[in-house]
Specification:
heterodimer; A: 315 residues; mainly beta; Porin; 12% helix; elongated; B: 180 residues; alpha+beta; 8-stranded antiparallel barrel
């Protein structure tokens, strides 16, 4: 064997090694260590906003984020205050302005004021469970809400009502699952308590169940629907209608815009789920009779106190 | 005798080539920056995995797109859901090689050229960029800055937000490696 041959073999063996040990091994090394370090990741964006239409979603604000929510409903399209004389409700308007702040990534606090019965509301929402992304070890996201609303509108008939009489509470468990990138569904067992009800036959404690869904049909557009079912025999002194709403959501850079059709004029859950306040019109009408309110929701998020990511790490 | 010599050289050859000088890190830093008429968007990722094989002058980077932190939660959601689609394509990966002289046992700053493939959003493109390696107290660190176009990686920017997102993003890389 000549020296040349030996050199050839050496060169080949080294060369082969070089080829063999190229990029792919380095990448697989990285993959291995990423796999080892893998943390549980959670599903994000089950819903894009705090509200499906009127019902709250499991979503809260991220820590240090402030959301400004504008919910606007025109008057009813058809019915006593609608029709062509009122330009199908456009002459009238109900507005709720709300602020929602993320105390932690799981705890959100919110306040709002609605022109419907001049209602003030506030809530605390806590994300109890989070749906996991990679496996089904946790199939749903669950949030719990404690909510209170006080209506302050004065009228000669009810000047005797004090603030306690005007207050109602609700507790809601929101259970949602994002089935895939386009479909999310939520169930909402709801408990409502009215300090004052119209008659003795009406219940102070009322149960209802809500369901809602979002279906994305493009990357930035979605359709939302929600239905709140109020079992019979709880509110008897007045006719109640189950609240049923649709929305068409459009996401742009910094905010979410949603066009809404609903048979509920109020945006307070103690008012649209079951209306039981003495001397007050029902807030939820009949879809069949055209008691439908057109409107929109706009939410805009502000970065108030978001923690900065750590500076470039050492080793 | 000749056979023994061949065998010796073969073993020596294999041994020397498998003795890789590996440097790696699990918390390299990558930032991207978009400067557009309406707003500046920037995001940081401190959980970038990187490895350098100094003996072969190969290097690789891998990161989870979900680990990019934006100033606004909504931006972060949009980035993951609408742009890079991190549910379908969770990782961005670079693998390649560099050219340039780096003396690993001597402190100093060395200019290198990095060439390789960047995979993002399911699209693999060759890229080439200048970078700097620094050896200090026996430790290796690297920095680089380069530009990428989202459209090269099939990341479409809708016309509504065209003024919010730059055509070219500036990517900054910083990595401090440890020896293996």
């Amino acid at each position: 064997m000549s020296i040349k041959k030996i050199i050839c073999i050496i060169a080949l063996s080294v060369g082969l090694q070089q080829v063999y040990a190229q990029d792919s091994t380095l990448l697989s090394k990285l993959d291995d260590s990423m796999q080892v370090d893998k943390k549980t990741s959670y599903v994000t964006g089950t819903f894009k906003a705090i509200y499906i239409v009127n019902m709250q979603t499991v979503e809260g604000e991220g820590k240090g984020m402030l959301n400004f929510e504008i919910q606007h409903r025109f008057g009813e399209i058809n019915g006593p205050t609608g029709g062509s004389y009122n330009l199908y409700g456009l002459d009238n308007a109900t507005l709720r302005l709300g602020l929602d702040y993320g105390i932690t990534n799981r705890l959100t606090v919110g306040v709002g004021r609605s022109s419907y019965l001049k209602t003030f509301d506030g809530y605390l929402k806590y994300k109890v469970l989070r749906q996991t992304a990679d496996n089904n070890s946790m199939p749903v996201t669950v949030s719990a809400i404690a909510y209170a609303a006080v209506y302050t509108q004065k009228s000669p008939d009810d000047s005797f009502l004090n603030i306690g009489n005007r207050t109602a509470y609700s507790a809601q468990l929101l259970i949602a699952r994002k089935f895939n990138r386009n479909i999310s569904i939520q169930l909402a067992p709801t408990y409502l308590h009215y300090n004052l009800v119209a008659t003795k036959q009406d219940k102070n404690d009322v149960f209802a169940i809500g369901a809602g869904a979002r279906i994305k049909f493009t990357k930035r557009m979605s359709i939302e629907a929600e239905y709140n079912y109020l079992p019979d025999g709880q509110i008897v002194s007045q006719k109640t209608h189950n609240s049923f709403s649709f929305g068409w959501g459009i996401e742009t850079g910094g905010h979410v815009f949603q066009l809404v059709f609903s048979n509920s004029q109020s945006m307070s859950q103690t008012q649209y789920v079951a209306q039981s306040i003495h001397g007050v019109d029902q807030s939820t009408g009949d879809w069949g009779d055209g008691n439908i309110y057109f409107g929109f929701n706009i939410s805009r998020a502000f970065n108030v106190n978001r923690p900065k990511p750590k500076s470039p790490g050492g080793n | 005798m000749k056979k023994i010599i061949i065998l010796f050289f073969l073993i020596a050859g294999i041994a020397s080539s498998t003795h890789a000088q590996l440097y790696s890190t699990r918390n390299a830093y990558i930032n991207f920056y978009s400067k557009a008429a309406l707003e500046d968007i920037t995001a940081d990722n401190n959980q970038v995995y990187s490895i350098i094989d100094a003996s072969k002058k190969n290097m690789a980077f891998s990161l989870l797109l979900k680990s990019f932190i934006f100033k606004k939660q909504l931006m972060q959601d949009h980035f993951n859901e609408n742009y890079v689609e991190s549910d379908k394509y969770p990782k961005a990966v670079f693998s390649g090689a560099y050219t340039g002289d780096v003396t690993l046992n001597k402190d100093g700053t060395y200019k290198i050229m990095v060439k390789g493939n960047l995979t993002l959003h399911g699209v693999t493109k060759p890229i080439e960029l200048p970078a700097t390696l620094e050896v200090k107290d026996g430790k290796l660190s690297g920095t680089a800055e380069f530009k990428i176009k989202p459209e090269d990686y099939n990341i479409s920017v809708p016309s509504v937000v065209r003024d919010n997102i730059a055509k070219e993003l500036t990517v900054t890389v910083k990595a401090n490696y440890t020896t293996h």
